[in-house]
Amino acid sequence: MNAGNPSRAITAGIAAYAVGSRFDALPEQVRQETVRAFLNWLGCTLGGSREEASVRAAAAIAMVPMGAQARLIGHARRADMGGAAFINCLSSSALAFDDTHLATVTHPTGPVAASLLAYAETTPVSGAEFLNALALGIEIQCRMSNVLLMPPAMPNLSLYITGITGPIGAAVALGRLMGFDERRLRWTIGLAATQAAGIRATHGSMAGIVVPAFGARAGVFAAQLAASGIDCSEDALEAPRGFVDIFTSGADLGHAVEGLGTRFELLANAYKPYPAGIVIHAAIDACLEIVKQLPAGAEMGSARLSVNPLTLALTDRRHPATPFEAQISLYHWAAHVFLRREAGTAALHPAEVADPAIAALRDRITATGDDTLARDEAVAEMLLTDGTRMRAHVPHARGGVSRPMTDAELEAKFLTQALGVMPQDATAALLTALRVIPETTDIDGAIGNLLDAAGCNAGEA
Amino acid sequence: MNAGNPSRAITAGIAAYAVGSRFDALPEQVRQETVRAFLNWLGCTLGGSREEASVRAAAAIAMVPMGAQARLIGHARRADMGGAAFINCLSSSALAFDDTHLATVTHPTGPVAASLLAYAETTPVSGAEFLNALALGIEIQCRMSNVLLMPPAMPNLSLYITGITGPIGAAVALGRLMGFDERRLRWTIGLAATQAAGIRATHGSMAGIVVPAFGARAGVFAAQLAASGIDCSEDALEAPRGFVDIFTSGADLGHAVEGLGTRFELLANAYKPYPAGIVIHAAIDACLEIVKQLPAGAEMGSARLSVNPLTLALTDRRHPATPFEAQISLYHWAAHVFLRREAGTAALHPAEVADPAIAALRDRITATGDDTLARDEAVAEMLLTDGTRMRAHVPHARGGVSRPMTDAELEAKFLTQALGVMPQDATAALLTALRVIPETTDIDGAIGNLLDAAGCNAGEA
To answer: What pLDDT, on a 0 to 100 scale, did the predictor assign at position A66?
Structure first.
């Protein structure tokens, strides 16, 4: 360990940056992107709040006669801060519609926003303070993901990275909002780092959407313990036998701190147009391009997809048994697009997942990994039953950082999800409030009542 | 992955064993050892409940207006089940006096007993059911530690193993007590495995005693989520990119299930006579042997300790700054024994840790790792200022499985700790109740009121 090199002291470096961070000191683009991240997250949380996993988890939380610190969005229930952060993060990923830092497949906003919003119900927080902490948590979470997964690290494919780095992002953001000094922030980071957890084998079950939520809850608990004076080693990230050591080897700690405040990993975070695993998006785009050109009555004989090898490594699941497995099945999405000519939440209905026509199509699709293709790139080739061959090459998936969703597209995505659980007038008022979040003096005062309109008729026990 | 080999299906194997487990089917020795484990744990929990970390963490839990499901032992407070499991597990390790599975340095009873006892306050549980679940959780936790750390696995020294396998032990035990079927137990195990966390770099701070407590809380939450129908992949332990994959490579999964019900890893669990890191115990014994023979007025010139290399790897900390660091400082314990001629909790008083006379002695001690020495073996050599040389070789540390504490020693340890926080009559009644735990029809009915006598005058806000 090169203890003499200050760039190795990343726990202290992050804490020092956090204490000095201010929303009005962030570049304009970062401020805008933070607002967009929150808008996207809140829509996903509303849209996912009626999913079975969210309903069941809220029932688990409600088994405990908890306090009523914060709302479970869309559930007409309240819980303690950690429980609310847990449920709201869970809802936001329930439809796999949340944001993604593609380089590491981290979904950073969930653990951070859910933790901060729960806290904002217990103490008045201005929009600028809230967004500054949100930007901070997203930034640190993505950077720690880079440390573990980007070269020269030897990445561990078992890591469910949002569960691993989510506690740290949530904890440092919450600690900032709670006004911790640098020393307490270092404890907080350590208390979060030692709760970092999540295995990729949970994917394809409800547990797969619970892992980021565990991260939110762990981050909140870390800040609560540090607030009560539970201390921790002050270099838990980089210490021998610490956070980095446990999950990887050969990591470059510079990813964590170099350029903090001037170079923003948050700008590499993107919003999904489709509720599918992010690495499938380019293939979905390619399939959509082909179906747009299909002559009427055309039938698929077979199809071949070429994708980045990571896509295949993560989504090579031919016949999903559940909607959760379908979210991350490359074959299911391609079959759905070829048959239904769209790529929305209908692909995840249990009836669609079980449809024999879809299953038959999945069997006629082959997929190959091609390491000359980028992660947001794909090629689809189709042979029609009449012998016609079609081909589409998508160099950059829609919604990625090279081809981002516009504000209008993002607001449309928000409205679609919010209107599923909220009255129209409250939805419109909520969107208006979100547009001026940076000027809000009390975020819960501005949006809390409107969020209570979600789920008011949820009918849960 | 050798999916055709049934011994690989360890998640299912553990669940099947758990469902079929019954206290009266356990060998007599295992039943006795389980009672001893609980006695030792409860004494440690009482004894540790006034430690600063426990008081602070209880304050963190109390920040939340939680429910009153279960007691925080020694705190005159109640919390939700997960919070109570957290605090009671934390207290039990606060003085590093809890039990140890030496082969893996796992402290198995804490996460399991704390979770089960909290549950027993919400639903009547017989002594036999309780002890059966306790034996089950200890057994599975130690076996999963073996999977990760014993040959042929390549052990990861960053693992804080009680935090890693504790959630699994606690969850499977609690799921058994809650009457889960095999499928739900497999979910429970997976939901615990994906929360497995803990870095060794927390050692030496309060966070070091919090990690096992995180494990207890995670185990409780896993069972609560599974009870509400949150499902999980049913092979999360052994699946590719699952629990075993994330933490090690080359593991033998047979450690988890081979001989379940006939060979008991629980019998390799032992109780500490000294509140020190377990790997220091043989050295303490050797130092105690020398000081017993010291002539009056003898002064140490220098000393040399020879220990198993693991001891040195984990406790090579010459000048501890805090009691937590002192617990795991080989030099501090040797210096304390040489100067004070005893090895009790007095070694951990802040004044003792800071004493210049102790510091001076630590500087005159050298330690070397010797891989011909077993983990419970040590040699101490001392050169007195008058030139006399003394030497003690301890082949097996006191308290280890080769030289276990007697029932009388264990009860004396319990009384010392309990009397620190409870009235004498309640302490005596509690010990009497613990002796007949296997015949108890309602464990909380039998010991709950007595435990409420602990901390009734704690004076916490």
So the answer is: 54
